[in-house]
Structures are given as C-alpha cells and as structure tokens.
Fold each of these.
Amino acid sequence: MKLRSNVNARPLSVTLVVLAMVVAACTGDTTDTTGGADTTDGGEATTTTGETTDTTAPTTGGVSNPDTFVHAADDEPTSLDPAQVEAGEGGETVILQVFDRLVEFSPEGPDLVPGLAEEVPSADNGLISADGLTYTFPIRAGVVDHLGNPVDATDVRFSWDRVLTMDLPESNVGLLADNVASTEAPDAETFVVTLNQPNAAFLNSVVTQSVASIMSEEFVEANGGVAAGQPNEFIATNPVGTGPYVFEAWNRGENMLFTVNEDYWGTPANLDLRIEIVPDPDVRVLGVRAGDYDTIETDPSFVGEVEGAEGVTVFQGEFLLEPIHIGLNLNFPADQLPDTDTIPADFFNDPRIRQAFNYAFDYNAFINGALGGFGAPTPFYLPQGVLGYSEDLPVYEQDLASAEELFREAGVWDEGFTISVIAEQANLFEVAALVLKDSLEGLNPNFSVQVLAVAEAQFDEAFASDPLPYAMWVKNADPFADPHAFMNEYIHPDGNWGQVHGFRNGYQDADQIASMIDEASIITDPDEREAIYQELSALLYEDPMWIIAGNEVAVMAHRDWVQGFVMNPLWPRPSLKFALFDKG
Amino acid sequence: MQIRDYVLRRLMVLPVLIIGTSLIVFTLTRVGGSPIAIYLSHEMTPEEVAEIEERYGLDEPLPVQYLTWAGGMLTGDWGWSGVAAAPVRQVFPNKLGATLELAVAAGIVAVAMGIGLGTYGGSRRDRLPDHLTRVFSISGAAMPIFWFGILLLIVFWVGLGWAPIGRSNADVFSSITHPTGLYIIDALLAGNWTALVDAIWHLLLPAVTLGFGTTALIARMMRSSLVETLSEEYVDAARAKGLPEKLVLRRHARRNALIPTVTVIGLSFGFLLQGTVVVEIIFRWPGLGRWMADAVLRGDQATIMAYVMFTSVLFLLVNLAVDVMYAYLDRRVVLGS
C-alpha cells in the first residue's frame, strides 16, 4: 500500500502569511479567490463560435469548472487493468469509477449493495449454499459497456477467469486464486462461484475488490485477448467497463479525463470528471485554495494549511484501514544485516523484547505530531471499523518503566544494542522510524536505532526480499474490509508475513493462533467470529509481532461547493466515488 | 581549414562520444540498482519475480541486455515506462515537447533579459543602473527555484488568479491536434488564437521561474565582458573617430563582449534542462524532468536511461553548435585547430 503524500516540512504556511499582505494590496480582497486561475473577473466564461476564449476554466456563480468535477491525485497510475493493478495503487482510483463489480460497499459504510448482481447473496436469500461453498449471483439484464457491448453472466465469468489466466504477479490475483475453485455461467443472467473452502469474508474481501471488476469479453478479444503471464498493454491504458464514468483520455503527467456514462444502469453521474496528477502536496493545497481543484488527496500533516481557508472544508471521516506499523523480523539473516547492527539472530524471538519495544514507542508523539491528531492507537490486528474492533481491546501506550523492566529481564539493558530500521524517505513511515529512534535512544543511551530512509524503489527492492535483510521496517497495512484478511496477512504464523518474518520462531503458542484464525474464517455467525477475534487480539497484546504506530483518520479537503460529499475508507484510495457528487 | 571541414571533423567524433555515453549510462544505471524494483511488491514469491524478469528480458546476461537496449534505442523500442504506464517511445515526444518548450521559453527569457540587463549595466558602470542590475542578478542567482516558483504561484495563481497552472486548459488542449508536441507551434499550425494564448499564458510563470537564475548568470557575464571590452584600445579608437557612443557600443563593443557570453548561454541550456525537474514538479508541467524524477524515485530504469541518453546527446549537440558559433564569431578558432 502506497502512502498518500509527503510530510516534508514546508515553507508554505510561512510564505502564505508573508505574502498575504502583498496579495491583499494587489487585489483589495484576499478572500475572493475562489476561481483562482481558472476564473474570470466576472465569474463567467466568454465563448465565441464554440471556442473558449478564456484561457482558463469557466466558472458559473463562483463555482469553478461547473460541469466537471476536478480531483487532484498525488501520483499517476501504473495500470488501469483490473487484472494488473496493484492493491493500493493509483489505478484503483480509476477502476472504481470506470468498472462495476458484482456487489459494492455502500457509501455509508461496510454494508454491501448490489452492483452488477441484482442481489447481494446471503444464506437468508438462498444465494449462498448451506455449506458456504457456492455463491449464486443473479446478473442484471440489459447492461452494456461504454462501447455498447452487452455484458451478462458470461462476461462476468470471462472477467474472473481472465484474471486467473493472466495470473500477473503484480496484481491481486491471489484473492481469486486462493478462494475460487470454479466459476459457471449456466445462463446469461446467472453467475455461480464455488469456493475451495468456506470463507466468511468472500463477499467483502474478494468480490468488492478491483481485481473482481467486470468487462466485456467482446472488448477484450478485440483488443489483444488474454495471454497467460502477459499484461494486456492496450487495456492497461484504455479501460472500458460498465461503470458510471467513461474513460476518455490519459495525458501523461497532466490529467485523466472522463465523461458521464449516459447509459449507466444505475443513477448516472452528475458531472464529467477530471483527475489531475499533482504530486507536490503544496501545489494540491494551493490548488484547492485557488478553487481549481474540488477535492485533493489529503494527508493529516497538511490539514493545518487548508483548515479555515476561505471556501475550503476539511472532511473528517472514519478511520482508514491502513494502520502504520513497524515490522519486527524474527527471520533475518544475521550476517546480512547492516554492519552497524549488533543484535543476534534470535533477538525478537523473546516476547519480552517485542513487548518492550511496544512499551517504548511514543504513540502520542506520532499521532499528535505526524498525524496532527487525526489518528488513534490500534489493537492487534483489528483496525477501527473492522468486525471485532472494540475500544475495550488492549492497546499499547508508552510506558517507559515497563519497557525498562522488560529490557532488563531480557538481559539487553546494560549491554545495549544497535538496530537498523528501513523506511521510505520523506513520508510518515520515516517519521514513525524517527519516533522509534527517539523513544529508544531516550530510554537508554546504550540503545541505538539507525534509520535507513531510502527512496521508494530501494525500499521496494529490499521489501520484496525473502528473507528480509533488515530487523525492522516501517510501512502501512493493505486495507481490508474483513478481519480475516488482516489476521491472515499480518498475524497468522503461516500467513504471508508470518512466513517471511518467521512468526513461528516467536509465538508462545503458534498453533493456537493459527487455529483460531482458521476457525474464525469459516464461521458465518458474526457474533462468534467477533468473539474469536477479540480473544485473539488480547492474546496478541501479550505476544506482539508488530508495533502499530497509529491508524489515520480519513481526511479530505474539498471546496464548499461540492454537494453530496461522502467518503468510505473501504473504497480504494482516495475513497471517493465521484459519480455521487455535484457542484453548486 | 574551412568552417565546413571543422564541422565535419566534429561530426565524425560524435558517434564515438554517443556510444561511450551509452555504455556509461547503462553501466552506471545498473550499478545503481536492479531494473526490477519498479515491478516488485512484497507479496511476490521468487518465482514471480523470475517471471517478471523474463517478461522484460532481465534474465539475460548484461552484455546481451546492453545490446538489446542500445539496439532498441536505435530502432525506437525504448522499453516500457512503469511510471507512465506506456512505452517510453510513445510518451517521450510529448514529454520532450513540454520540456523543450519550457526550456526554450526560459532560455529566451534568460537571454533577452540577461543580455539586455548586462549591456545596460555594463555600459553604465558604477552608476545606479549598474548597481540595480547587479542586485537583480545576485537575487536571481541566490533565490532557490522551488521557493521562487511557489512564491509566484501564491501571488499569481492563488492570490490574483491571473496565471493558471499546468500546461494547458483541458478543453482548449483537446480542441486542436498536436502534431509537434510543442503547444505554441501546434496552436500556430492550427491557426487557433485561443490555443496560442492559452499555451503562452500557461508557459509564462514556469518560464520566468526557470529563466530567472540563468538571466542573472548571463547578465553578470555580459556586464563584466562588456566592461572589459569597453576599456580596449580599439574601442577608444572608435570613439576617437567620432562615432556616436551607441554605435560604438552596438557595433564594436557588444559583439566582442558576446563571445564569452555565448559560451555561458550554450552551457546554460543544459542547466536549464536540468532545472526543469523542479519547475515541472512545482508547476505541474508534464515534461521530461518531472517524469525522470518520478522514475528515479521508483526505479524505472527504462525511463531513466532514455532521459539520460537524450540529455547527453543534446548536450553534445548544443556544445557542437556553440563551437560552430565560436568559429563564426572568431575565425582564429578554426585556423588554430
């Protein structure tokens, strides 16, 4: 999961204050800047014979670009193909708007609503079999894609099978491959999925995801078809779905243009859409202040620069599902660690050391500083909003006395240690690493933490290594809608990180943890699942494999004229469905 | 030796320099890290990493990879840009157009203002205009580009609403075709006045930002060169002949003072291209510099190598052009060679 933006200290606020008087002197009214560059004095665009004579965007009634919703994104996608897009990557933003899935998260929260399926399967409506293995989706009739190709159950089956056939390592294909045993389309209006084993999170964690998006077979076959192990370069840059927005153009480094799908089976979008590529956070802030952007990719660290600005509202929503965590590696090759590290290979095998690290970390400094107060501690590994989360679950707070006691018990207090932590530079991850450094080095001068802040490419290269040649690293979790995904990915001793980090070397009872996670994944009663996850979370508090620095609150700066604003962290970043918005 | 022979001899050396540059670019880029980085994520198994290496030919021996890359560069297959999600060759012309347009515009700003200010200050040595142009020059050289750019945005974009950001208005952009990728030229070719004004208007702030530092450099060089030239005996002789001061300045002093200044201008073009990285990020200008910065951070080596090769070759060509201009301005260069 990529982090949204940089948090470099910026001179912007200071510069703004200094320049405010200059600007006031020039304009006579510093607050009348809603149109920014793309406005004219009269707030009206003048047009002649079909040509816009204003060199900037038109305005109506003080609203910039009245017919187009403009969002400022922080980076450029690398693929717009659901079969290739990486989870958390910018392409998911586009896929959410252009494609449909069988079911979707509602705007209000985790509830599912029908997408291309007419009903959300459940045991009650009989669309989930008694053994929990077979899901039947009644498919909407009369749906066409943006080129007019009809889309029915055979296209749904084709779309899922296409992802499985292409099997691209950069994609989220594992979600389908790990769960789906077979797919069928007995008729044009029925799609049937059989699972390998019951999975209570199937609808939430698989069917709603980008990788399960639907496209027409006719479109794919006319544009490169399907080849195992090979990306489809055409579709990666020219997506055609059935969603509320029609993809029109991708001007690399500038913007992506979309028009309203007038034939959308649901409620059509109100406005055309333009996603501007604006990597510099300062420019995004200036853009929303100028009125050129309706929403901007927002980071808690620069909320202060837009809060209170004329015409700008800062939306604070639910928590994101991407806690920022520090990995504790129990499986590093000691001879490959950075030369400065002095820790033995079994350093983190001792639960007292892991607990001590958790007690030492200054959560308040990170949450109130780096996150600007827009965050909270998170229990293992149940982020706020996920089934099982409760405020009563134990979370670590900084307790230096307990940390010292545990370090002494583990026998590392007097001798001390030097340990390296790797993180991407110039973002919240680096800040979390620096907070850890301050926390530990402040606790004991014999402790030394080397923060290796590196470029994203270097981090990714190190991060993909197995075994991982660093004892600690910082990143954020991938967002999931169901607790099983978090538990399986970040807690299960035989899960993805469990294997890489060697959790079995450290858990006091690895089999118990594994069996609890496995058991909860196949139970369909939410209350029973919740009880298991909460019991598990309490166990993990005593046997932590991570330091969870904090979980961010979803924040988004938008212009006041945006109507119907809603944000759901369960949707891919920036957690917005632009078709729901209007301006006025 | 004739100027033609001199130019031909320089042209014959050029391919050797380009091949040498390509070897250095390829080697240094590979030393800097694996090209696989941009495609990796932590979920990938070693087998999946191997799949991707095979997909992009990264499992071949390095000499084979070099020959494949160098051959591709010659034939137009410059690889896949992970950052732009498109073939490098497909994206490159537009990015190049954007950067060239910006660099040339900044160069025009810098040369026009630099020579003008330098001449103005140099011909009024130690008087108020000279001091003022010196202050201007020093501030231009001292002011960081990113700060100056943000300053202009705050005043002219957010505050006054006079200047837009980006390269064009999306509607205006799509109203004409873009055969050259240079929007001003495209607008002229289309005969579309609105598009022309839009292109110039969007270009103004980034060009001034980028050109400001170089303006200062050229102005300082021009001023000192002119001061030196004005103290030459042949200038005194011209004055003694009774020529008006304006004519002495224009016909005798400025032309000779331009020789060292032209050297600076030639070198400055390379620096302008490098300076576009910051300006393009700040002004959301979709050029090579911003693309390249993103590619470096994300390890997109196909993009990096294409960019570095381009700037290297361009630098070689510009320097060749400068040398030819030298020869034109001062025949002793040719005779001496």
Amino acid sequence: MADSRDDFIISIRYALLKKSAKQKFSLFFLIIFSISIIALDKLSLPFVTSTRAVLNDFVYQVTFIASTPGKFVSYLSQKKTTHFNIVNRNEILKEEIETLKNNRHNALFLKTENATLKKALNLGSPNNWKEKPTIKARVIFDQESPYLKSLLLNKGRKDNIIKGMTVFSKSYLIGTVIESNYLTSRVLLITDLNSKIPVVIQETSINAILVGKGKKTDLSLEYLPDVYSVEPNKIIYTSGKDGFISPGLPVAKTYFNKKNEIQIKSLADPQQASIVHVTHGGFNR
Amino acid sequence: MNLLSKIKEVLVSNLGVLSLYFLSFCTFEGLKEFPDLVVFSFNLQMIIVYFYVLKFPDQLGLGHIFIAGIINDVVIGTPLGISSLSFLVLAFFTSYIRNATLRPKMTAEWITFIPALFFSNLVYFIVINNFSHLGFYYIELLQNSFFTFLFFPIFYFIFYNFQKNFLRNME
C-alpha cells in the first residue's frame, strides 16, 4: 500500500519537475507562470493592459494572414450562392422596391407629423447621436468560439475607437466595442451570451433586455412583464436606456420557427459583415 | 543538401509545434460555409498536445505549448493564460500517464484521454468562472469534447505513422 503511494508521488513529481534534454522549462514552473499571468490580467495593472494591447495587435495581424485561405473558401462559396440565386433574387427585390417606396412615403409623412407634434408639445430633445462622426472599419476576422462570439476590426485607439462604442453593419446594430487596442478592436456581437441591450417592442411600451444565445436566429428577451407574451412579426427597437445606444434602432424581429414557436432573430447578419460603422451610439441611415 | 530539402526537413521535424501554432492563430472562417459540419467541431490542439507529450515528448516543448495557449487566448478573447494553463494541465496528466504506463497500447491511451480532457476542461471552467464574467455554451463545449475524444484515434494513426516514417527516412 505504502509502495503504491510512493510510486504515485514519484510519478507526479517526475511529471511536474523532470525536464528532458530538449525541454527548457519544467511543467511546474510553466503552470505557476500561467497562474501568475491570469492573476495579473485579472488585476488589470497599467503595464499589463498596455502589454496585452501590443500583444493583441501583433497576434491579430498574424491571425489575419493565417485566416486568408479560410476567407477565400468563404468568398468562393458566397460567390457560388450569389450566382445561382441571382434571377430569383431579382424578382423578389423588384417587389420589395415597390413595397419600400410606399412605406417611404408613409414614413416621411409620419416623420413630419411626429416633428410637428413634438414641437407643439415642446418635447424636442437635442439629438446628439447624429452629430458625432462614424468611423468605417474593416472586419479582420470573426471568432465563433464557445466562449465569445466576437468580431475583430482593423481600427483601434489610433482611429478614435474606444470601449463602449456601438457597431453597425448595413445600418443594423451588430454589437459593441469591448476591447480597444492601438491598431485593432474587438466587438462583442449582439448574438453573444454576454450581450445585453435595453429594448422596446414595436407598437407597445414594453421594455426588456435583449440577450444573445449564441445564434443569429435565437435571441431572448429578459425582464418582460409576467402578463405579456411575445407576438410574432414584431420589430424590436433599442430603447436607449443604457445611455450608449440611441433609441429607435431596429435590432431584432419576432418570428415563427419551424416548430411553430415564437423566436427572436437578429436583423443584422454579423457573419456577413465585412465593412462596419463604429459610432458613439446612433446611426444616421 | 539544397535549401528546399532543408526547409522540408525543418517543417517535417517540427510538425507538432507548427500545427499547434497554426491552429492557435487560425480562425477557420471557411468552415462557416458548411454549418452542418460545425456540429462535429473538435479541439485538434488538445489532441496534438496529448499525442506529442505521450509519444514524442522531445518533439513538442512545454514552452511552445505555453505560448500557443497565450496566442489562443488572445484570438478567442478569453483572459490571458487560461488556455496555457488548460494545455499544461493536459500535458501534466499526459506526462503522468506516460510515466505510469508499462506497456503502452493505443486503446488504453485513447481511454486515458477521457480523464485528461476532463481535468483540462475542468481547470478551464473553474478559471473562467472565477477570473472573468464570460458565460459559455455548455452544449457546444460538451459536443466539442466528445468529438475531440472520438476523433483521437484517427489523428493518432496519422501523426504516429508520419513520425515513424519520417524517423525511418532520417535514419
């Protein structure tokens, strides 16, 4: 019994401390070093933050190059799909243009009416969102890990991108900046589990928090009133209650899935985003 | 010996290290075009670390495993050092298995991959839960771990035959 315990301890010690001819570090030293790095990263000391920013910039550039073959496969696949769908798409687009023309006239009328009513009620609030410029950035790569659904942009603090800014693709909100390095920045997508956006549901005054579940077609609403049940085909807009995102931006839509259940899908397609607009909260379409 | 064959020799003799670094840097964006295949996603880095530490420990240095983990953390966006610690725990467990095994068999090594993966992922979860505010997708991770275990023999044979043939050619 004592012998087997000794053997076990010897094996553990051997595995932790023994260095073979070509190994420069022992396993024990590297494990302690890793734990120290985790602790330093958690403490967010100034020199650690700046070192991490430099490391991030370097690794992202190499990752961009390493991901080029994969991007080429994506490009070829998208080209093939576009080519085969072009005739059907043309018909659909023609119908959509007609509908949108009608909607535009209605929207212009409502906008004018809204402005007049606000003026009459003295509700006009200064619209700071539009005054600030937007920054165009290119997506270097998007990371779909089981931990974080995020995008990497090719602009950072050098181009005035700071943590907390909002990111739009094709005029739809796709996420917020969570990490800003000197040359690059990381965007947390609205589809991520950690993303939480204050929203309001179309034709109601119901406020809720839109939370990602990892998929573009499956978002969820939290903090809804107990008596309220979500209806299909409703647009979900930002409420602007967080003070970061301007109110009234469409972000998601309710729909019936294949099992006839009501689900929420993102209006934007973060996976297809290649050029994005980084703003201070609003986006002037 | 001309330059081409020298490059080839360097590439072949450092296959483990190079693939580990490449996988850490790469984001596999092309795979998104095949959404049905994403279900079968697996962690090749874990397989490489386990295989090389078990069978050819001199071919993959622990320092390389550590750096690859750091790069992986930067690319994924998790706090620095978590992947390194996870890979090193896997290497430690593998090293223990190597020392404790008298007659190595592929099937036994495949089975011992389960506790090695378990402890490695356990350390990952504990550190992420305590050192970050990140949530994660348990089902995806479970699938990932399962397929990592399932595909191990395939890569075992590929890497093993590759290393054996290469060593024979070198001799």
